[in-house]
């Protein structure tokens, strides 16, 4: 049990780290697409690690199964959501930072 | 078998009928069905009033769970009396609405109109009968949601903004009531009104209870359009379809007045509310301002529906004035006026709807020359208008008589005089319309042959109300008996000493 | 100190309610009004749920070995109230859609100017 | 610890609410409202109200936010500057708030088990309901049985909302909608994932519906979740496609049917000699009768809520399609 606890806390700490870095990235990154990238870190890897950590804390009963399903669900939905968001932005004509810079350079020349 | 379930029937009849009316789908079919159901619940209400007058309080435990654990329905003389008025008006308005809404609402929405009407009726009866403070909130919301829908069915685009304003104000009011009920519940641990009343006395001077009282009073005041919280009412009544205005003006605010009476007398106790909190002075001041300000507003409007809407706010002032006198006669005057005002405003708005049916406008200019063209409609309007003024032999006179008597009992000459002066303002705003109808000529550009009497399905309910106006104005025994026993019942429930100066 | 421990929850909830209420009565945009109404109501729900809490209690679902449960009645009332709230929101929002179509704006002062008074 | 979490969440709520006042971007306002709703759901969990949290998350944060977003698509996303005076609203709010604070001063302390509400009425629910009604989830017992009349009223409120929305926005048939396919045609990932998710969501809705007697959940939450599955379908594959799965007229029938199913349980118990909604009379054994009654009425609630939520979404969605066509 002791080892399980250690693994679980390691997973939780890693999850918290990724969650925080995602949040900082969301504020610090320069444009929309990089921000989506930061946000998707929070709801994919951070959430998965935290739920993984919690999984190990349960006593392998109904709650384990429920957490497992949540994990599965999140692994399906959060990447899809980030993908749909980025794709819609692209579809709507939003350019990445690099592209905007390039455009500007071409205009000045 | 049905006798033991008498108390629950007026609620569940329209409640169950509403989805069925939606399924029926056909305009005519759902009209017939809704009218039938409404008539049935009117009959049941009559039975309930008879039972309540002879046996006293009828209690019904829904789900078989005794109060305070389950929800209790309580029918006494007071709410059976209002219930009868509500269901009778609903039936008459439904009969009236068949032709009226054909003109004003597009065909595909007729079924929705009848469904919403039934829902509104179910909500109103639920508010009246329930003995549970939270259940009251639920039924309040049913009737409110149905009302917003009904108002928004109007033909003018302004009905939308009116309905939205009504929705925002109404929801704030309902949320205030929710806060108030929550505070009471927090202190007493119960939601049953009877149980609340018995437990509230332990905490009479508690700040939490008093705040709860204040919030409930403000919330209910929004719902009953007490001045200065009446701003939603004139636009809503002006732009709603005529049949809806006739129904709402004569029922929705009356039910809210009853809720106020119920909270004051059977839950908090008149002694606490009036003698300790001094609410009677606040209510009296607001009522008097409402009577004068809104009667004055009524005299300067050009839209007849708006005139009558402002007049409604003023008339609500009379009801609250009756309550604020803190005497059996005053309360009785308030209760009688609930019933009587339903009769007169119902008839007036139906007559205005009839004018709209033929002329297509309810501006005061549209009334020119109608005395000749639509004699029956305008006669109905005249008699109901006289009733608003308070001319003898009409119900309006009866209400004012008891109100003045109640004021004079306390040697309150001021109030009595103010009531009479208020009637003079009513003479002005009703007189303007009658002047246009009888002493001005039909505009040249309208073809006299198109402006004729409305179908008899619209005239019959209108005249039924007019005849009731005169009948209950001459033979006052039924209304006064019911109202006085209701008022006495409300007062003896908590042995308050009447205020006398 | 005791006063604060006993009531801090209610005070913050009152603050939240008033924020929502302020948005309702001050907002000029109708959508924002509806958002305010929802915040107001949600905060009232918190008032109810706060009073149902028992320190050291658990959710009111029978579990072996637990004796202290929180009060289920406020939960039931608020379940009802939440659904009532969403019903009002739906009707309010559809009114806004219609107002936009009829007036071309959802700012209160703008459509008020487009019609005569009342 | 619970108090600490409570405090942190309340502080976050206060920040969110204050931000809503000053933001002019309505899209952000609506998202903040979604956040507000989720945070309050967390508070509800922290205060032991799991059923309420479930409902708040699915109804408040889910359906309300979606409807607000759809409305924004039709009405524009920025609030205009207005020069309205803020003095009067501030005054009203200050007075109301002061009255409430005054009222809190005599309140029973937060969380004290000796408070009146824990001493009167509620003890019977906690002690007797597992025996009288036979369900471990007391919230379901009180909701469906002791206060079943409230819940009937609540179902009717939902039904009235549908009537209101349909009356305002109208019902559209499939033929009326734009002929070309709408939805996310090019989003292949979305379409594949949605196809995988929708059956799972419906399965989950059924679990919530029938497990409500034992754990958090019940008809409302299940109805909303099932509606969410169909809303996802309509969003990804387009409204015309969704209309051919369940039509708007059929949904009206379903909504009526749910209310009637609920009410018919009440009528049947009257017929059996009990009071309205007295489930004990449904079977020879009162506890078994209670159980049957609760299952049926929860089903009625679930059906109505599902049908109403979906038809409200249809009504709003059709408006968006219509404005796109123009």
Give the number of domains of chain D: 2
Kindly estimate the percentage of residues of chain D that lie in beta strands according to DSSP.
under 5%
Q: How many DSSP E strands of chain A?
A: 0
Roughly how many Å apart are the termini of chain A? 67 Å
Helix content of chain A: over 70%
Measured distance between first and last alpha carbons of chain D? 56 Å
Content of β-strand of chain A: under 5%
Oligomer: heterotetramer
Largest sheet of chain D: none
Structural classification of chain D? mainly alpha
Q: In terms of per-residue confidence, which ranges of chain A show pLDDT below 50 for 5 or more consecutive residues?
A: none
Number of helices of chain D: 13
Q: What can you see in these coordinates?
A:
The complex is a heterotetramer of chains A (about 110), B (about 500), C (about 120) and D (about 325). Chain A is mostly helical and about 110 residues long. Chain A has one domain (about 1-110). Chain A has helices spanning about 1-30, 30-55, 60-90, 95-109. Chain A is elongated, with a radius of gyration of 19 Å. The model of chain A has no long low-confidence stretch (mean pLDDT about 85). Chain B has a two-stranded antiparallel ribbon with strand order 1-2. Chain B is an all-alpha fold. Chain B is built from 20 helices and 2 strands. Chain B is globular. Chain C is mainly alpha-helical. The mean pLDDT of chain C is about 85. Chain D has about 325 residues and is an all-alpha fold. Chain D has 13 helices and no strands. The mean pLDDT of chain D is about 85. Chains in contact: A-D, B-C, B-D, C-D. The interface between C and D is large, with 85 and 100 residues.
């Amino acid at each position: 049990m002791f080892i399980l606890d250690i693994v679980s806390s390691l997973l939780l700490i890693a999850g918290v780290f990724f969650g925080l870095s995602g949040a900082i990235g969301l504020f610090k990154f320069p444009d929309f697409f990089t921000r989506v990238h930061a946000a998707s870190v929070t709801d994919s890897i951070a959430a998965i690690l935290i739920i993984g950590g919690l999984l190990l804390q349960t006593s392998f009963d109904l709650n384990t199964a429920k957490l497992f399903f949540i994990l599965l669900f999140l692994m399906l939905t959060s990447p899809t959501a980030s993908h749909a968001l980025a794709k819609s932005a692209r579809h709507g004509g939003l350019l990445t930072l690099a592209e905007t810079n390039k455009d500007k350079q071409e205009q000045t020349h | 078998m049905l006798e033991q379930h008498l108390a629950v029937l007026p609620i569940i009849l329209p409640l169950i009928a509403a989805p069925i009316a939606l399924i029926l789908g056909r305009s005519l079919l759902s009209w017939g069905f809704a009218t039938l159901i409404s008539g049935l619940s009117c009959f049941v209400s009559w039975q309930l009033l008879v039972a309540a007058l002879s046996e006293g309080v009828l209690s019904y435990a829904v789900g078989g769970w005794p109060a305070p654990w389950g929800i209790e329905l309580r029918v006494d003389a007071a709410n059976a009396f209002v219930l009868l008025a509500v269901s009778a008006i609903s039936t008459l308005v439904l009969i009236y609405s068949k032709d009226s809404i054909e003109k004003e609402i597009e065909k595909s929405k007729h079924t929705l109109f009848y469904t919403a009407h039934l829902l509104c009726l179910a909500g109103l009866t639920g508010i009246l009968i329930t003995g549970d403070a939270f259940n009251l909130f639920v039924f309040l919301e049913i009737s409110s949601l149905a009302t917003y829908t009904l108002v928004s069915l109007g033909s003018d685009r302004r009905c939308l903004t009116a309905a939205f304003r009504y929705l925002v104000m109404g929801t704030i009011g309902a949320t205030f009531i929710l806060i108030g009920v929550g505070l009471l519940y927090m202190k007493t641990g119960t939601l049953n009104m009877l149980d609340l009343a018995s437990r509230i006395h332990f905490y009479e001077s508690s700040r939490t209870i008093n705040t709860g009282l204040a919030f409930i009073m403000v919330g209910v005041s929004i719902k009953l359009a007490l001045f200065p919280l009446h701003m939603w009412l004139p636009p809503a009544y002006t732009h709603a379809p005529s049949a809806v205005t006739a129904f709402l003006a004569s029922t929705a605010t009356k039910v809210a007045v009853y809720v106020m009476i119920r909270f004051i007398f059977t839950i908090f106790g008149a002694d606490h509310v009036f003698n300790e909190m001094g609410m009677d002075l606040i209510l009296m001041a607001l009522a008097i301002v409402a009577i004068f300000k809104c009667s004055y507003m009524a005299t300067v409007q050009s839209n007849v529906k708006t005139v009558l809407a402002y007049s409604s706010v003023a008339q609500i002032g009379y009801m609250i004035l009756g309550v604020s006198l803190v005497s059996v006669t005053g309360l009785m005057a308030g209760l009688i006026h609930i019933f009587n005002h339903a009769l007169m405003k119902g008839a007036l708005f139906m007559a205005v709807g009839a004018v709209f049916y033929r002329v297509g406008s309810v501006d005061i200019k549209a009334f020119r020359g109608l005395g000749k063209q639509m004699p029956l409609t305008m006669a109905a309007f005249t008699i109901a208008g006289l009733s608003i003024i308070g001319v003898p032999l009409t119900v309006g006179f009866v209400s004012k008589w008891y109100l003045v008597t109640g004021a004079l009992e306390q040697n309150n000459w001021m109030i009595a005089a103010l009531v009479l002066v208020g009637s003079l303002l009513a003479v002005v705003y009703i007189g303007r319309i009658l002047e246009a109808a009888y002493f001005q000529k039909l505009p040249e550009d309208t073809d006299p042959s198109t402006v004729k009497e409305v179908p008899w399905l619209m005239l019959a309910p209108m005249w039924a109300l007019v005849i009731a106006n005169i009948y209950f104005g001459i033979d006052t025994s039924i209304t006064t008996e019911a109202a006085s026993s209701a008022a006495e019942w409300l007062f003896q429930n908590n042995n308050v000493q009447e205020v006398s100066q | 100190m005791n006063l604060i421990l006993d009531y801090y929850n209610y005070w913050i909830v009152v603050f939240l309610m008033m924020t929502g209420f302020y948005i309702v009565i001050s907002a000029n945009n109708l959508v924002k009004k509806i958002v305010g109404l929802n915040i107001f109501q949600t905060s009232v729900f918190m008032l109810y749920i706060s009073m149902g809490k028992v320190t050291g209690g658990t959710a009111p679902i029978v579990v072996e070995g637990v004796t202290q449960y929180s009060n289920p009645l406020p939960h039931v009332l608020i379940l009802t109230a939440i659904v009532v709230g969403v019903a009002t929101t739906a009707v309010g929002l559809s009114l806004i859609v219609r107002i936009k179509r009829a007036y071309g704006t959802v700012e209160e002062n703008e459509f008020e100017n487009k019609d005569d008074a009342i | 610890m619970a108090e600490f979490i409570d405090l942190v969440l309340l502080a976050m709520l206060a920040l969110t609410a204050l931000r809503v006042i000053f933001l002019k971007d309505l899209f952000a306002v609506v998202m903040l409202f979604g956040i507000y709703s989720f945070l309050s759901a967390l508070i509800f969990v922290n205060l032991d109200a799991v059923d309420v949290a479930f409902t708040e998350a699915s109804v408040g944060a889910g359906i309300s936010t979606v409807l607000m977003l759809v409305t924004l698509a039709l009405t524009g996303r920025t609030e205009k500057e207005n020069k309205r005076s803020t003095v009067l609203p501030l005054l009203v709010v200050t007075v109301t708030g002061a009255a409430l604070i005054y009222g809190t001063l005599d309140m029973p302390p937060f969380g004290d088990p000796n408070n009146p509400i824990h001493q009167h009425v509620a003890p019977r629910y906690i002690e007797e309901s597992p025996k009288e009604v036979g369900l471990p989830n007391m919230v379901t017992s009180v909701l469906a049985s002791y206060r079943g009349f409230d819940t009937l009223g609540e179902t009717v409120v939902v039904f009235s909302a549908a009537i209101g929305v349909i009356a305002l926005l109208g019902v559209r048939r499939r033929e009326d909608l734009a002929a070309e396919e709408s939805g996310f045609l090019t989003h292949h990932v979305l379409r594949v994932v949605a196809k995988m998710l929708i059956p799972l969501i419906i399965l989950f809705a059924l679990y919530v519906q029938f497990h409500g007697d034992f754990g958090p959940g019940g008809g409302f939450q299940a109805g909303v979740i099932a509606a969410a599955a169909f809303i996802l379908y309509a969003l990804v594959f387009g409204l015309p496609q969704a209309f051919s799965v369940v039509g708007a007229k059929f949904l009206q029938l379903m909504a009526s049917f749910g209310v009637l199913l609920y009410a018919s349980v009440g009528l049947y118990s009257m017929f059996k000699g009990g009071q309205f909604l007295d489930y004990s009379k449904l079977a020879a054994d009162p506890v078994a009768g209670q159980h049957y009654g609760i299952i049926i009425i929860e089903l009625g609630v679930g059906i109505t809520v599902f049908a109403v939520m979906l038809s409200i979404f249809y009504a709003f969605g059709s408006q968006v399609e219509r404005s796109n066509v123009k």
